[in-house]
Design brief:
Blueprint (H helix, E strand, L loop, with lengths): L1 H19 L28 E3 L2 H11 L5 H4 L15 E6 L19 E2 L12 E2 L5 E4 L3 E4 L5 H12 L8 E8 L3 E6 L5 E4 L7 H7 L7 E10 L2 E5 L1 H6 L14 E6 L4 E6 L5 E4 L7 H7 L8 E11 L5 E6 L6 H5 L9 E6 L1 H26 L2
Parallel strand pairs: 1-16, 3-7, 8-12, 13-17
Antiparallel strand pairs: 2-4, 2-7, 5-6, 8-9, 10-11, 10-12, 13-14, 15-16, 15-17
Helix pairs in contact: 1-9
Family: Belongs to the BexD/CtrA/VexA family.
GO molecular function, one term: porin activity
InterPro entries: Poly_export (IPR049712), Poly_export_N (IPR003715), SLBB_dom (IPR054765), Wza_C (IPR040716)
């Protein structure tokens, strides 16, 4: 019995001593350290914390709803007639001259244009294939350069070239097989893959719709268009909010459209929240108050609501930290206007009493171990 009392006396004395030396520092779990050096080799790498105030929240909201970036506006254009290119297949019919019609063609010109899939040779389509250097060969006229021309321009060229052999030639030119131009759609769409550009203007919504439309897992705020090695992020929701018709974004041959999954852009809720988890943003948008609400808010039994931090990683891997004191619910009104960004980390620190409790819960099992060892030694 005396041994037990001595053991607890030592443990109590140790607890009092450590508590006087800030025992909370020994408590398990992550905590925010204002003097923490992000780079251990750089004493100047301590992050300056920005307080989340109404003015900062308004500033961040205005920045999030900024006008459509210039690089997105550069994608806006007007529809133009289809320009013929190498590999396309043309139907050329001279009316009232059946001897000039290909044996496999008729005056009805088949059933209309064909959108060929990637790698299709088009061998089954009756017509004149455009050679790799952009020519077709037509009776009497000979080789005609058609690449870079529209249907109307090719027709006029053939009419001029055949007037010496045909009186008042009536010629119809149509593209039957579209093989020279395509865009590529990938990501969260129903049927990703190459999409031929036809006489229907290839706008961004057109490319996505011809791919079967976006999946429920898609993030409409993160549609990326890559052109000539440069990638532009297009926020479809922001375009609509800015009264810009998404169909005004014209794609070019070789463009790559990638629709990102919502799961790639989460908000991570950590620390003393009711349900720590990763949250999916709503089409690229979520406020701090919404994020806290979806996880049940700061824990009523373990959190210090005055210590809520938003940690954001900058492109150079250095952190940017924002602090919210929500010890009173009024602060949640400010949090409702503070927009989060993809991959932000929201951390809620623990209260000092909770840290002390955790420290004690670890300390007393240690005291029991000492008691057991002492009892064994005296046996």
């Amino acid at each position: 019995m005396n041994t037990l009392l001595r053991t607890f006396s030592r443990a109590a004395a140790m607890a009092v001593l450590i508590s006087s030396l800030a025992a909370c520092a020994f408590a398990p779990g992550m905590r925010y350290k204002s003097d923490f050096q992000v780079d251990p080799n750089d004493p100047n790498s301590v992050v300056t914390v920005k307080e989340i105030t109404p003015s900062l929240a308004r500033e961040m909201t205005e920045a999030a709803s900024a006008p459509v970036p210039e690089n997105v506006r550069n994608l806006i254009g007007k529809p133009t007639p289809y320009v013929i290119g190498p590999g396309d297949i043309l139907s050329i019919v001279v009316w009232d001259h059946p001897e000039l019609v290909l044996p496999t063609q008729t005056y009805s010109i088949g059933t209309g244009p064909t959108e060929l899939t990637f790698g299709d040779t088009g061998a089954g389509i009756p017509g004149y294939p455009v050679s790799s250097d952009g020519y077709v060969q037509f009776p009497y006229v000979g080789l005609v350069k058609v690449a870079g021309m529209t249907e109307a321009q090719v027709r006029n060229s053939l009419i001029r070239g055949s007037r010496n052999y045909i009186q008042d030639p009536q010629i119809t030119v149509r593209v039957l097989g579209y093989r020279s131009k395509r865009v590529y759609v990938e990501g969260e769409v129903k049927t990703p893959g190459p999409m031929p550009i036809t006489d229907v203007p290839m706008t961004l919504p057109e490319a996505i719709n011809r791919s079967g439309g976006v999946l429920p897992t898609a993030d409409r705020s993160r549609v990326y268009v890559t052109r000539h090695g440069q990638t532009v992020r297009v926020d479809m929701n922001k375009l609509t909010a800015a009264n810009i018709d998404p169909t005004s974004i014209m794609l070019q041959s070789g463009d790559i459209v990638r629709v990102v999954a919502r799961g790639d852009n989460k908000i991570y809720m950590m620390g003393e929240v009711t349900l720590p988890s990763g949250l999916l943003m709503h089409d690229g948008e979520m406020s701090l108050a919404e994020a806290l609400g979806e996880v049940g808010g700061p824990s009523q039994t373990s959190s210090d609501p005055s210590q809520i931090f938003v940690v954001r990683s900058l492109p150079n891997a250095t952190p940017e930290v924002y602090h919210l004191d929500s010890s009173s619910p009024q602060a949640l009104a400010v949090a409702g206007k503070f927009p989060l960004q993809a991959k932000d980390i929201v951390f809620v620190d623990a209260g000092n009493l909770v840290r002390w409790n955790r420290f004690i819960s670890l300390l007393f099992p240690s005291a029991q171990t000492v008691q057991t060892v002492t009892a064994v030694q005296h046996q």
